[in-house]
TrEMBL record:
It is a multi-pass membrane protein. Signal peptide: none annotated. Keywords: Cell membrane, Membrane, Transmembrane, Transmembrane helix, Transport. This is Carbohydrate ABC transporter membrane protein 1, CUT1 family. It comes from Paraburkholderia phenazinium.
Length: 311
């Protein structure tokens, strides 16, 4: 092989075999130190402190009086907390599914090279630039039975029409879904559109030659190829579900009664309004544990898939 001017691939130095310290200069490690310190002290430190407080009888101020799992027992005997968990599950399922479906349909629509594509992308993505407080207030006015859609229908002659979900205990959670889906579906559209634009045109040419319907190509070939973009969108939407607070405060204040209570609002109310740091910390740890239990396997499987690709 050497006589032919060729070298064995096994004799070449592998970039993967180099130690991490050789690939990354000292300056890069120094630049990472502020972020490492932030993660260790600001994130992990506060998590550990919250876990410690959740095991005490802390009320207005942190206390060293150890109470074991008393706060957790009290938490799961609190009707308001159980309602908030039920609401967040219903909201999360509806919100994520609706955002994924609408975002995918919008991405497919724009991927057809429609007229004024740039303007349409801006229109669909613009709501995501708004704060959840602004979104909540706008939708509160729209859904207000005396000012919004219901009143407009009554003036048009549909006197028996009802759209008073925001004051109905059985439907108020779905008004939160409507408002936040309107805001977040544009983000999903942008992520999936980027994935669609990365698909090879040869796939479409082969499908046209074989006479395969366009919808079948999307369902059987294109959508499975978007799994990376869809998984990214899922993680972002799941984080929005866990953080849901601003829209609830702006639209319903958790009402009527506790019909639209969510865990984040429960934690903030007990932390600042009712001065019960111990119970609020216990609720925070339960919420954190739930998030880790759902996302950790997801990221593990995704990393395994990436490693198999590299191999």
């Amino acid at each position: 092989m050497r006589a032919l001017g060729l070298t064995s691939t096994s004799s070449r130095p592998s970039r993967r075999s180099k130690p991490l310290g050789r690939r990354w200069p000292l300056a890069a490690w120094i630049a990472l130190l502020p972020m490492v310190a932030t993660v260790v002290f600001a994130y992990l430190g506060t998590m550990l402190w919250t876990a410690r407080v959740s095991l005490t009888r802390s009320r207005t101020f942190p206390s060293d009086h150890f109470a074991g799992v008393t706060q957790y027992v009290r938490l799961f005997h609190n009707d308001r907390w159980m309602v908030s968990l039920q609401n967040i599950v219903i909201y999360g399922a509806c919100f994520i599914v609706a955002c994924m479906v609408i975002g995918l349909l919008l991405a497919i629509f724009i991927d057809q090279r429609v007229v004024a594509e740039g303007a349409l992308r801006t229109v669909f993505l613009y709501p995501y630039a708004m704060s959840f407080v602004a979104t909540g207030l706008v939708w509160q006015w729209i859904l207000n039975p005396e000012l919004g859609v219901q009143e407009v229908l009554h003036r048009l002659g549909f006197v028996h029409a009802r759209f008073d979900w925001i004051v109905d205990q059985d439907w108020v959670v779905y008004t939160l879904v409507i408002a936040t889906v309107w805001q977040a579906s544009g983000l999903v559209m942008a992520l999936l559109l980027a994935g669609l634009r990365g698909i090879d045109d040869e796939i479409w040419k082969a499908a046209r030659i074989d006479g395969i319907p366009r919808w079948r190509v999307y369902a059987s070939i294109v959508v499975p190829m978007l799994k990376t973009s869809m998984s990214t969108a899922f993680v972002l939407l799941f984080v929005m579900v866990v953080k849901l607070y601003d829209a609830v405060v702006a639209m319903t204040q958790g009402g009527p009664g506790t019909a639209s209570e969510v865990p984040a609002k429960f934690i903030m109310d007990y932390l600042f309004g009712r001065a019960n740091i111990g119970l609020a910390s216990a609720a925070s740890i339960v919420l954190l544990t739930t998030v880790l239990a759902i996302l950790a396997p997801f990221f593990y499987l995704r990393s395994r898939a990436a490693l198999r690709k590299d191999v």
